[in-house]
Structures are given as C-alpha cells and as structure tokens.
Design a protein that fits this description.
The protein is mostly helical and 450 residues long. Helices cover 53% and strands 5% of the residues. β1 and β2 form a beta hairpin. α5 packs antiparallel against α15 and α7 packs parallel to α9. The protein is globular and about 75 Å long.
Length: 450
C-alpha cells in the first residue's frame, strides 16, 4: 500500500533524476562498465548504489517502470518497521528511548518525507540512517545489537550518500572488539561488496571516493585530477550558496568557501529554507515533549547509560561537520533530526508514560493519516487525470532526432540540449566535449583530450 501511494502519479526528483540518476541507470542496463565514464558527465562519478538496485528492477515483469521500486521499497520498509515497533511497544507498555526516538522520527517522516518526487538519492540514506540509530538504541546495557548487520547497513548508507559516510563508524563505538565481532560471514560480505564498490569508483572516475582529490589516482589515463578538484570546490561552494551572491563584488568558488566568507549569503538563503522546514517540526515536537513531560510521572530509573550521551555527542559532531562542509538541507538532515530527536527522547524515556497510551496512539494515527491523505490528494487530483499515466515520467525525448549523436572512434553517445532522462544511453548534457576512446578487452575507456 505504501509503495502504491508513493509511486502512483508521482514525479521523479528534478533536476537530478533527468540529469544523471536516470541516465546512469540507462547506461547500466545497456552497457558494460564504461571506464572513465565521469569524463562524459562528472556526476556519473558519484552515483548511488540505488541506481544499481533500480537497474536490476528493469526486468520482464515491470519493464522500465521497475526502476521506481527500490526507492519506494526502502521508504516503505523503514516506515513499516517503525510503525510496527511503535504499536508493539504500546501493546507491551514498553516506553524506552528507542520508542521515543522512533516516534519523533515518524513525525518528521509524515511531515517532510512523504513524497516520492522529493527522494532522489538522498532519502534512502536518511531513511537507513534513522533505522541504524534506532537499532543501536534497541540494545539496552544488558542486550547486544548485531554489529555485523549494522556494519552492512552503514555500508549501504555510505554507498548511497558519501556525506552520510560517518555512519560507518557507529556500529563499532559501543562494543568491545573481539574475534567474532570482526571475523564473520556478514562482515566478509560487506568488505567484498565495499571493495567492489570502490573498484567501480576507480574505474569510472579514477577515485576511490569521488570527488575527493586525495583519494584519486593521477596515474590512470582516464583520471582528471584538475576536474576532480574543481568539482570538489564547486560542490562545497554551491552547497554554501555561492550562486546566491548579490552585488558586483562576488567571490570565486575557491575564495567563497574560505574564512567563512559564505556565512552571510548562506544565512540569507539556505538557512532561511532550513528554518522554514525545521521550525514547524521543532515547535510541534517541543509541544508534544512538554505534554508528555507534564503528564508523565517521574521514574526511579536515574542511571542513564553513557552510550546515549556518546551517541548524542557524535550526532552533534556529525551535524557540525555537515554545517562546515556541505550545509545544504538534503545532504545531511538525518544527522540533525536524529540529534534533536535523541536529545528529547533521552530526557523523556526514564519517566513513567503508562498513562499516555492514548496520546501515543493519536500521534501515530495522525502521522499515518497525513501520509495517506497527502499522497491520495495527488493521486485523485482531477486536474491530473488527463496526464494518462500511473507511473512517474522518465523520458524527456520521444525521438532520437531530438538528441545529437556523437561518435568518438568506436564509441557513440548522445548530447542533449538540456537534461537527458531515460531512453538513449549514454547521454550527457555537456556540449563539445573533447574525448577519445579506446577498447581494452571489449571495455570502452573514455579519456579527456587535454
């Protein structure tokens, strides 16, 4: 039901979906791995594992429309897990720190993460990060969590969004190291998968993680270190609002990110947007927190495990690094939301909340109702019936003639006048690229002509 609500008559995340998400899925379905693919479009250097999942779902059952399922599956799986956790806790009268963390996160999901068209590559990582924190909280001082499984989840998060890479250290922080913790089948699978992922990154871009210059190999013929460094600086500058500068004296991208030159412009643009999103949520959350604080009774359980303080401190640190490096909402909002939710959960969980069952049920049903109603309004909106489609739109061009066919030696790609979309791989929106191609053991190698 959740997948149906998310996908039906939705849009894809613009402009990134048409710019490189869908084109990359298209390439995966029609080509062997293209070595140096980032030379065709630099964004192909930092695509997500979700694009590979999407390409697998492009099959004989769902055809091209199958590529929409992975995003919806991740979202629906986490939402279902969280809702069932809440109902089970209420049924057992078990109101621990995990319960309140999940409750506060579910409120955010129903408020801000309820539209498929806003997911992109970011939402799966944020959904999984919320789940990772909830699983760590699931373990009380007397119970253990499954470290290898959480390491696998962390690796999935990293492969979805590099800016969420801090998640990889969380499973290790609260356990004593042992041979069984390190040497096991799940960790072996995770290491193999990460090795293959990093190898893929090197083949596509020349970097272990793109576009981090220090993790790139300058000796590879398809590696473009200057472009990598430029992309790294520009990504940070754009995240800090470089494009929103006003007046004639504008900083270059490299100078803009130095010495907090970006703070003023960022505060007038990105910060206002972030405040417009966070403020209603924080106010609503604080009202619920006060109600629970007033109505609940003080419990005798005063010794709160240090694990929660450590976790709050780490989430605060992650949020600070996000602010200093890439302070755009979609790159790291689960750090901030988890930080806020865990602080409130920490102060409320040790109180006796048995009398608040009706409040909890009302909040849960309100969240479910908001999610269902917002998506139902989109699906049954009379003004959208004429669209004549159930699935999200993936093609921008109906005819190949609308694209320019470029041949480089024995390699052919398409040049788009705008974004590429799905249907004619490989495709790029960059004009007049100076490339050369070679065939090495049946694999195409794309290199820049300097």
């Amino acid at each position: 039901i959740i997948i149906f609500l998310l996908i039906t008559k939705s849009n894809v995340y613009r402009p990134d979906a048409y710019l490189y998400h869908l084109p990359f899925v298209d390439i995966l379905n029609h080509n062997k791995i293209i070595i140096g693919l980032s030379n065709l479009h630099f964004r192909f250097g930092h695509t997500s594992i979700i694009q590979y999942s999407s390409s697998i779902f492009n099959n004989y059952i769902f055809l091209n429309n199958g590529i929409f399922f992975p995003l919806a599956i991740v979202a629906s799986a986490i939402i279902t897990n969280f809702i069932l956790n809440l109902f089970n806790s209420i049924k057992k009268n078990k109101y621990d720190i995990q319960f309140f963390f999940i409750l506060f996160v579910v409120i955010f999901i129903s408020y801000k993460m309820n539209r498929y068209g806003e997911y992109g590559n970011d939402a799966p990582a944020h959904f999984m990060f919320f789940y990772l924190i909830s699983e760590i909280l699931k373990s009380s001082p007397e119970k253990n969590y499954n470290v290898p499984e959480l390491i696998l989840i962390s690796a999935f998060i990293l492969m979805n969004k590099v800016t969420m890479g801090f998640s990889i250290i969380l499973p290790f922080l609260f356990k004593k190291f042992s041979t069984s913790l390190i040497i096991n089948k799940t960790n072996f699978f995770t290491l193999i998968f990460l090795f293959l992922w990093f190898t893929k990154n090197i083949l596509i871009s020349g970097c272990i993680i793109y576009p981090i210059k220090n993790l790139c190999f300058s000796g590879l013929s398809w590696s473009d270190i200057k472009l990598t460094e430029k992309v790294s600086v520009e990504t940070e500058a754009w995240a800090k609002g470089w494009i929103d500068q006003k007046g004639e004296d504008k900083f270059s991208t490299s100078n803009y990110i130095k010495d907090f030159n970006w703070i003023e412009t960022w505060s007038q643009t990105h910060l206002k947007k972030i405040n417009s999103i966070f403020s209603p949520y924080i106010i609503f959350l604080f009202i619920i927190f006060l109600i629970l604080l007033i109505k609940s009774k003080k419990n005798n359980y005063a010794n709160k495990p240090l694990i929660y303080i450590y976790l709050i401190s780490l989430l605060g640190t992650f949020s600070l690094v996000w602010f200093l490096k890439v302070p755009v909402f979609r790159f790291g909002y689960s750090y901030i939301i988890s930080f806020v939710c865990l602080i409130l959960a920490y102060f409320i969980y040790s109180r006796n909340n048995l009398e608040n069952k009706k409040i909890f049920m009302c909040i849960i049903f309100l969240c479910i109702s908001i999610f269902v109603i917002k998506n139902s309004i989109r699906i049954f909106d009379p003004s959208k019936i004429h669209f004549g489609r159930i699935w999200p739109k993936i093609k921008l061009f109906d005819k190949k003639e609308e694209l320019k066919e470029i041949k480089v030696n024995n390699f052919t790609y398409y040049e788009s006048p705008s974004e590429c979309g799905f249907g004619y791989p490989p495709c790029t929106n960059y004009k007049n690229l100076k490339l050369k191609s070679n065939i090495v053991n049946s694999y195409v190698v794309l290199e820049k002509l300097f």
